[in-house]
Amino acid sequence: MTDISPLQKARLQFQPLLPLVLRSLRSLTPEDFSPKQELSKELEALFPYTGSQAKLVFSEGAETSFSAMRVGVVLSGGQAAGGHNVIAGLYDALKALHPESKLFGFLKGPSGIVDHDVLEITEDYLAAYRNQGGFDIIGSGRTKIESEEQFQKSLNTVKSLDLNGLLVIGGDDSNTNAALLGEYFQAHGAKTVVVGAPKTIDGDLRNEDIEMSFGCDTACKVYSEMISNIARDALSAKKYYYFLKLMGRSASHIALECALQTHANLTFIGEEVAAQKRSLRDICGEICDMVLRRSEEGKHYGVILVPEGLIEFIPECRKLIDELNDLLAPSHSHQAHMESIHSKEEKIDYVVKFLSNESADCFSTLPTDIQFQLLLDRDPHGNVQVSNIETERLLMQMASIELEKRKKAGNYKGKFSAQPNFFGYEGRSGMPSNFDAQYCYGLGHVAALLIAHKRNAYMACIKNLTEKVENWQPMGIPICGMMHLEKRHGKVKPVIEKALVNLEGAAFQHFASQRELWKYEDQYRHPGPIQFFGDREITDQVMLTMTLEHENAGVSLTSAGT
Amino acid sequence: MTDISPLQKARLQFQPLLPLVLRSLRSLTPEDFSPKQELSKELEALFPYTGSQAKLVFSEGAETSFSAMRVGVVLSGGQAAGGHNVIAGLYDALKALHPESKLFGFLKGPSGIVDHDVLEITEDYLAAYRNQGGFDIIGSGRTKIESEEQFQKSLNTVKSLDLNGLLVIGGDDSNTNAALLGEYFQAHGAKTVVVGAPKTIDGDLRNEDIEMSFGCDTACKVYSEMISNIARDALSAKKYYYFLKLMGRSASHIALECALQTHANLTFIGEEVAAQKRSLRDICGEICDMVLRRSEEGKHYGVILVPEGLIEFIPECRKLIDELNDLLAPSHSHQAHMESIHSKEEKIDYVVKFLSNESADCFSTLPTDIQFQLLLDRDPHGNVQVSNIETERLLMQMASIELEKRKKAGNYKGKFSAQPNFFGYEGRSGMPSNFDAQYCYGLGHVAALLIAHKRNAYMACIKNLTEKVENWQPMGIPICGMMHLEKRHGKVKPVIEKALVNLEGAAFQHFASQRELWKYEDQYRHPGPIQFFGDREITDQVMLTMTLEHENAGVSLTSAGT
């Protein structure tokens, strides 16, 4: 056994609390909690077997006996803290339902299903991963099961393993894929039901039933500690503006939570930027206005939070990126011409000619290295790799240039030194908070119940997450009910829409009511490192965005009725 | 009162443990623990009053009564976790010695002494900072008190405040400055004694008496958590090499501790690079050799730790930087010529002509943006800003180019994707670990005792730090005894030599014995976030480098004798 740390050891031994309902698994049966969900005809046509189903709760009755089950599990997409605990929860629940049940893990993501790349997860093997971060128990991957051949091979795999069920742990696309797989298996007479678990640090897999995707809590806690440490540093040395980019893809949920946790001086919320149709110049202007006013109070430091997806929410940038994606698509003749040009500057000159006036203007405001990045750093489909754009450096450079101008114009006398940083990978593979450890352990149990009761194309769900763990409410939610149809790459596909920050919601509204104060008064808040022992007020803190939304909504599951 | 987090609140209420010896302050008297230290004649001449003094321990006797004291405190240089607790410890100890004692904080570092910029630290004011990170209670700064005028003004300040003592919390240079101030005050008949406390996250203010500077423990714990999260991510997604630069200036103490904590695949130790006279190409070669061998095992990911000071330890880079510093000094004629050139490329061409062959060769191996950085990003003295060089990106780019070459030569078939990151400011202003919180609180007490007993130019010190807090051993160490004379900018000055990583020491030797295993076997270790509650095995963990050095040294204070 490798040398492990004392905390690692203690966490391996931690027994996550379960919601009271889940403590007597063999007495639970699923019960309809809603009428069957009505779907559009197009969706019904895509999902004749699994499309229209009811939401489920679990009610306690007489203990029944279950047969031994054989179940597969796969981790799909980016890491999120708690994935190991979903698997541990699934394992423990399967064993509690029948001690001869077996669990199989597909390796390196969905490709493991297609390629029959699998290992049996035993208690000994699992023991090293309980309550630990990362997805290293079986790895993860981004393969999408799309072609008929992939579906066929997946069917062969689950048949040859004789699986009763398959749990797909993933985000919106992976859960859509889970439903498609479940539908396919059922249509082809396989007994394997497919269920999903809502994973993503981005917090954008959310709806009236999914209160939060797992991993978001830990990521926000890791980032918030770092941000607040940096804020302490800014306030102590009084020397730097810190431009901190936060992972989280499109939606700005993580940035909003971190703003509420730390009271950083300025946080951009992409959804608001889009709603107000702000330009890159507007955003740079807001930064400079703040720097200027703070400098008049003798403050030449501060903390600025930049969500990873900001750039795509700026309409002119979105337009520019779309135009570049079209212009430089591998099929397009420009691509060949671009490759024949050697100098980067000439490449720029060549491309600019084909942009709309608005996009050419936006492109010209960008620093040269970002221009290069937009032209040269492209994914295999020829798309701009938005997540690679160092927005924190872009804004820092633009602000620096603008402030120099203001200085020359006599409007600004301060000094502006800045440091960029990116908080990303360290947050998505952190040691899971008690919230994520317990939430995920519970989700694994719900998944086991759904499989034991042969419920196909359901997502494991737990509600009432702002309450004590004991009162959490497990449910099963039909995945198709979350879908709509969308045109992607020319084809109409079922998708689960990503949840964006609700600008009318209580969390954003609270942020909006406080931000002028935080901008100038340095009321930094310090959540500190994640704690695992002691007072539950400290170890089991719920995300502030969730608490605010919940308090404001004022509804609980029990009052919703059927 | 600002909105504070539950953990912040709990930490404000935390009562740091004190070494048993320090629990009866009024009964303690300092006692010589060594003969007076012998100094060189030159040092004796610089410090006629405070030069030759004995090391002190504190022995318990009858309780004596003290008069009320007036004491000043200043934070000097970069932040380190625990600074607030040194001040809290000093405050509580002064009040315990006499309830009418008063504490004054000089604002924004040593310039606050020169400019008489001061506030009284009261219990109410202090209450918001106990056990919290950062230096924001009074701020910090890097002003060096050097000129006669500055000394004179400092003397005026301590006289007008009628100070019995002044505590300087800082690193090697600040403690040297403390001794010079103490000497000056005594020579000019002032009653103010000056004492120091060993601060720096870099861990390079260490010697036979100073087992560890404060702040290093917390910084290493913050960085190690981030590194180990990233390692989990690498192992889960199996996609990226992470190049992580760690703050810590010249010495590689932080990198060594983090390597021992996390078992990263490859860690460079600057001191070893210098001892082996390795070139930048050698270092890049070692990275590529590892990437190549790991790729043969199907591993296209890993974690590489780069100490901030690495570049200066590479002899050819050191030479290049020295030559550039000379060539581009503000006084030098080249500077004016450089400014007349507009194109960056022409600037490079101009400078390269004046470099030695070896330096020109080294310069030519660097990516263009690093070349620009070396030429253009300079401090007011014209020196290359070594700490601004993004060594993590430099090595990443060089490795990428070298691997492409090997691929073309048919020696390498893998894929190499990399992500750079810098862990810095978030570690030096983190919430102090229990170790730093208690160590610093104790140091504050020792400082109060030294002042109460009118011991001038001493550093507060606590030994036996690898034992339980109760058994820690407070001491007073004459600052001059740590000094030697060194030529700096053409003048001979007293300095405290920075402690580098000892390549013969047990910590480095342990690392060296394990690193081949860590390079290929992915035995990542996960220390997790700093914990404050529960089992002391977890909350009070001592740095592994200290534990290893201590176990190997096998000596304890008590056996050293007088």
Number of helices of chain A: 24
| Regions with little confidence, pLDDT below 50 for 5+ residues of chain A | 555-562
Give me the CATH fold name of the largest domain in chain A: Rossmann fold
Oligomer: homodimer
CATH class categorisation of the largest domain in chain A: Alpha Beta
Examine the secondary-structure arrangement and name the CATH architecture of the largest domain in chain A.
Answer: 3-Layer(aba) Sandwich
Largest sheet of chain A: 9 strands, mixed
**Largest contact between protein chains?**
A-B, 60 and 60 residues
Helix content of chain A: 40-55%
How does the helix and strand content of chain A classify structurally?
alpha/beta
Indicate the overall shape of chain A. globular
Q: How many domain units of chain A?
A: 2
Radius of gyration of chain A: 25 Å
Mean pLDDT of chain A comes to 94
Instruction: Please provide the count of β strands of chain A.
Output: 15
Description:
The structure is a homodimer of 562-residue chains. Chain A is of the alpha/beta class and 562 residues long. The first copy, chain A, folds into 2 domains: 259 residues, 3-Layer(aba) Sandwich (Rossmann fold), CATH 3.40.50; 205 residues, Rossmann fold, CATH 3.40.50. Chain A has 24 helices and 15 strands. In chain A, the strands form 3 sheets. Chain A has a 9-stranded mixed β-sheet with strand order 1-2-13-12-7-6-3-4-5, with helices on both faces. In chain A, helix 8 packs across helix 9 and helix 11 packs across helix 18. The longest helix of chain A has 22 residues. Chain A is globular. Chain A starts with 5 loop residues before the first helix and ends with a helix. The C terminus of chain A is likely disordered. At the A-B interface, helix 1, helix 8, strand 11 and helix 19 of A face helix 1, helix 8, strand 11 and helix 19 of B.
